[in-house]
């Protein structure tokens, strides 16, 4: 992804894909990736041992299940899942999120498996 002086229009980027649970890189900040995803349904329980994970809800509603209680995010709210904390995102309706995490972070964390997807660039 080349460096650009143009702003990133998140709504425009979101309109470019419909696949659920697939992260799309829209920017890079130092060693971090800024990614968009559309979520619906329940993902899997997983942990990121080496990094925190930021979820910012752009539209819809996201529940991040934690072993000691759920965090419910409405549009415009964010939550940082601390490193090493097991979590499971759930969206009852289609929900658009912005994720911020180090480059190379797997969407399925320590679990892996068939839901693991490589991050795609959105140009």
The CATH homologous superfamily is called Jelly Rolls
Name of the CATH first level: Mainly Beta
Total strands: the figure is 8
β-strand percent reads over 45%
Number of domains: 1
Structural class: mainly beta
Write down the Rg: 14 Å
Share in helix: under 10%
Oligomer: single chain
> What's the architecture, going by CATH?
Sandwich
Given the structure, what is the number of helices? Answer: 1
Largest β-sheet summary: 8 strands, mixed
Order of helices and strands: HEEEEEEEE
Average pLDDT taken over every residue: 89
Low-confidence stretches: none
Keywords:
single chain; mainly beta; Jelly Rolls; 46% strand; globular
Can you give a write-up of this model?
The structure is a single chain. This protein is mainly beta and 123 residues long. The chain has a single domain, classed as Jelly Rolls. Helix content is 4%, strand content 46%. It contains 1 helix and 8 strands, in the order αββββββββ. It has one helix at 10-14; strands at 24-29, 32-42, 53-59, 61-66, 71-74, 78-81, 87-102, 120-121. Strands 1, 2, 3, 4, 5, 6, 7 and 8 form an 8-stranded mixed β-sheet that branches. A hairpin with a 2-residue loop joins strand 1 and strand 2. It starts with 9 loop residues before the first helix and ends with a strand. The mean pLDDT is 89.
């Amino acid at each position: 992804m080349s460096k650009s002086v143009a702003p990133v229009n998140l709504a425009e980027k979101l309109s470019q894909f419909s696949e659920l649970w697939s992260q799309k890189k829209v920017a890079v900040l130092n060693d971090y990736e800024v990614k968009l995803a559309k979520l619906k349904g329940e993902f899997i329980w997983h942990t990121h041992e080496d990094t925190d994970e930021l979820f910012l809800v752009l539209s819809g509603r996201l529940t991040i299940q934690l072993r000691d209680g759920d965090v419910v995010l409405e549009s415009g709210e964010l939550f940082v899942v601390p490193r090493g904390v097991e979590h499971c995102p759930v969206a009852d309706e289609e929900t658009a999120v912005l994720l911020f995490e180090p480059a190379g972070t797997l969407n399925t964390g320590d679990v892996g498996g068939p839901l693991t997807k490589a991050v795609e660039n959105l140009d």
